[in-house]
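We close this part of the discussion by returning to an individual protein. In the encoding step, the backbone of a single protein was reduced to a row of integers, each denoting a local shape. The sequence in question and its structure tokens are set out directly beneath this paragraph.
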Amino acid sequence: MSSEFIDLQPVAHVEGVVRLPGSKSISNRILLLAALSQGAVDIVDLLASDDTAVMLAALRALGVQWSEEQTATGTVHHVQGVAGVFPNQSADLFMGNAGTAIRPLTAALAVIGGDYTLHGVPRMHERPIGDLVDALNAAGTQIEYTGNAGFPPLHIGRGQIHAQRLSVRGNVSSQFLTALLMVAPLMAREHAISIDVVGELISKPYIEITLNLMRRFGVVVEQDGWQSFTLAAGQVYQSPGTIHVEGDASSASYFLAAGAIGGGPVRVEGVGRDSIQGDVRFVAALEQMGARITMGDNWIEARANGPLKAIDADFNHIPDAAMTIAIAALYADGTSTLRNIASWRVKETDRIAAMATELRKLGAVVEEGADYLRVTPPAVITPATIDTYDDHRMAMCFSLASLDGMARRGNAMRINDPSCVGKTFPDYFAVFAGIARS
């Protein structure tokens, strides 16, 4: 694979089994919870990617001891918990473009206190963090912007938590609430802490992941619907001993969509009907488009069941996996509309604008709104050079446009900067080639 581009030839049929890499969302949450807990934690099947490397490097810089071991069945990371106090009280931390790392880590460092700077790649300095900072500073932390207000880079000093109730907006990123929930035990040493959500909470399944993992580490949060969360005083994170990372449900979407478009069957292993990840709900959208889906405890399989049907649906609950539906729409029998996806605007790139631009290169008619995307497929997909905007999901999504499929539409694709998939799935294109039958 060239570092500048990769050329994908048209694919007549896809079929095979894919073992998924670990979930990014679960991996980075577990790493921080393991670091904050009492005792040693063994993490099995942690995702090996740019974003987890960022978190591991940050934890090491903070004095957390961890090691990696290759076993006969996979990789195990051994993390020695620091019981809620980082050994190093000052550090300069590079966070790349990893939202799942910088947001909860900002909250943890601010509550613990010290002398910390956090910064990342230029795009990270364009991704909002103001709602989280406002919530924390109102509670007594000391976080300062060293660049543009509302965005990284940040400097964190020593504050004093005095609030027993915090509030945070829920309509920009669920990662802000996740960050506050994860550090709530550090704030609730002597009294209960409540966190109120202002307005609509987007991406609720990601909050479900957070609460599930917190329970695995011995901390229980009481919920009042999706508007308020309360943590009783005196709870601390305890090592679960060994914890396994599920396969990444967002990454599963590309292969399941491939099965739905390109014949199949394609089976993904590592995630199934019992998954704690909301992105498994992606398969409901594929079924709505006419795909045949079967599921087991730890696997999902997709195959075509005739040409795909157009879809009009709300994707607020699965924003990352919804990008794959925008590509599947190229193979549908009419115009598809993806609604309530405003959070795409503040991801690794402005994904609504990027998706609209690249879909038009393929011959699609695209209408772009503040929080929606409407896609009318072309009769035949035009060969194109796809720009990826340093966004792993753009690269993986547009590989699917090379599929011929039931609609007989696919065509040759050149994907620029394919190495951007290293953020979550470094060997994606090799795995994709493994199911492609030209």
In short: DSSP finds twelve helices and 24 strands in the chain. Residues 5-21+247-437 form a domain with the UDP-n-acetylglucosamine1-carboxyvinyl-transferase; Chain fold (CATH 3.65.10.10). The first strand starts at residue 5 and ends at 8. The chain has two domains: 5-21+247-437, 24-244.
